[in-house]
Design brief:
Helix content: 25-40%
Order of helices and strands: EHHEEHEHEEHHHEHEHEHEHEHEH
CATH architecture of the largest domain: 3-Layer(aba) Sandwich
Number of domains: 2
Largest sheet: 6 strands, parallel
Number of helices: 13
Oligomer: single chain
CATH superfamily of the largest domain: Glycogen Phosphorylase B
Shape: globular
Distance between the termini: 39 Å
C-alpha cells in the first residue's frame, strides 16, 4: 500500500486518541503517503503532526456561517481532489455506525475501505469488541485485519503553534506570573459538555486557594467562551467570571485565558506545568502535550477515555459518577501527590 487516508470526523478527543494509529501506520508503512481527512472543528489537533504527510480539512454545515450549498460544494471539490490522489486504502477508525464517513470514502474511490462493525458496506470489517479498552488501543485493531504489524501503543500527541505558546507566555508575564520550581503553573479547565462532568465554580476557587497556600501555585483559567444558554455553542462565561471575581478577592495569581480558537487552547495548555480538568477534549489535548493531570470523570468510562499521553495522571470518579460529588480535599491531595512524583 502506497497511499493511505484516515477519516476521523468526530470530536477533538476522538481525533487525539487516533494519533497512535497514525504512528503505528508510519512504522508499518515507512514509505507510504499517509494523510488524514478531518473537520474544521478538530483539525488543529493535528497541527505539525510529524508522521502525516497531509491533513485535509472539510467543514460540516453546522460549523459554518456559510450557506449549506456552499459548504456542500466545497466538500465535493475536496473529495474530487482526493479522488485524483488514488488512495489504496481509506481507514474509518471511529466506532458505531459510520455510514456518513463511508459515503465520503466512496466519493474518493479508494482501492478499499476498512472500518469497524456495525458499519455496513465496508471492504474490510473489523468486528466490534464490547470489552472496554482505551480508545487508542481500540483503533489499532484495524492493523492486524489489514495484515499490518501493530507494534507498541505510542502516546497520543498534540503540538502547539510557536506563536500561540509565545502569546500565552506573554499574557502570563503581563500579570506578573512567572512559573518556576517554587511557583508551579496549573491549568484549570472548567468547561464540560455533559452536565455530570462539571465541577462547581466555588470548588475551583477553594482548590486554587489551597494549592496556592501550600505550594505558591499560580493558575491559568480555561473555558469555552459564550453564554450557557446559547443553542449551538453553549459557553461558560458566567462561571468563569464567578471564579475570576472570587480569586481576585482572595488575591490569587490567576490568568483568565478564554480560547475562541482551538490553537489558543493548545498554546495555553502547552505552557502549564500540570492540568486539572474534567474528561473531555481539553483533557486529551493536555495528554497529547505531555502534561501531568488530575482528571475528573463523571459517567464516562475511564477504561475507554482515560488520557493516553506520556505523563502521569490520576482519574477521580465518585461512586455517583457525578463530578460535583468529588471533593476539594480529594482533588487537592491528588494534585499534591502528582506534584511531588508519587503518581507515575
Amino acid at each position: 500500500m502506497k497511499k493511505v487516508l484516515i477519516i476521523r470526523r468526530d470530536n477533538i478527543g476522538d481525533l487525539v486518541c487516533t494519533t497512535p494509529l497514525f504512528s503505528a501506520l508510519r512504522e508499518a508503512l515507512p514509505n507510504a503517503y499517509l494523510a488524514a481527512l478531518v473537520n474544521s472543528y478538530n483539525a488543529e489537533a493535528l497541527h505539525d503532526n510529524p508522521v502525516l504527510d497531509d491533513v485535509f480539512v472539510y467543514t460540516k454545515a453546522k460549523h459554518s456561517e456559510r450557506s449549506k450549498l456552499r459548504v456542500w460544494w466545497d466538500t465535493w471539490r475536496l473529495m474530487r481532489s482526493l479522488r485524483a490522489k488514488q488512495f489504496d486504502l481509506v481507514l474509518l477508525p471511529s466506532g458505531g455506525d459510520q455510514t456518513h464517513a463511508l459515503k465520503l470514502a466512496r466519493m474518493i474511490k479508494p482501492g478499499k475501505v476498512a472500518g469497524f462493525a456495525p458499519t455496513k458496506g465496508l471492504d474490510v470489517t473489523v468486528p466490534a469488541d464490547n470489552k472496554p479498552q482505551l480508545e487508542a488501543e481500540r483503533v489499532l485493531r484495524l492493523l492486524p485485519a489489514l495484515n499490518l504489524r501493530r507494534g507498541k501503543l505510542s502516546p497520543v500527541s498534540t503540538f502547539a503553534r510557536n506563536e500561540e505558546r509565545l502569546a500565552a507566555r506573554m499574557a502570563l508575564a503581563e500579570v506578573n506570573i512567572i512559573p518556576g520550581p517554587g511557583k508551579p503553573l496549573i491549568g484549570l479547565h472548567i468547561s464540560a459538555r455533559k452536565p455530570r462532568q462539571r465541577w462547581p465554580a466555588e470548588r475551583f476557587v477553594e482548590l486554587a486557594a489551597r494549592l496556592n497556600k501550600a505550594t505558591g501555585a499560580a493558575f491559568m483559567l480555561f473555558w469555552s467562551p459564550g453564554e450557557e444558554d446559547h443553542p449551538q455553542h453553549p459557553g461558560d462565561d458566567r462561571k468563569a467570571q464567578q471564579i475570576i471575581d472570587a480569586c481576585r478577592e482572595r488575591n490569587l495569581p490567576l490568568l483568565p485565558y478564554p480560547t475562541e480558537r482551538l490553537e489558543q487552547l493548545i498554546g495555553g495548555l502547552s505552557v502549564c506545568q500540570s492540568v486539572i480538568c474534567s474528561d473531555g477534549g481539553a483533557m486529551h489535548l493536555a495528554a497529547g502535550l505531555g502534561k501531568p493531570m488530575v482528571c475528573l470523570f463523571g459517567n464516562s468510562d475511564p477504561r475507554v477515555w482515560a488520557p493516553g499521553g506520556s505523563a502521569p495522571f490520576k482519574v477521580l470518579q465518585a461512586n455517583s459518577q457525578t463530578v460535583a460529588d468529588i471533593s476539594v480535599d480529594e482533588v487537592a491531595a491528588t494534585w499534591r501527590r502528582l506534584h511531588i512524583g508519587q503518581i507515575r
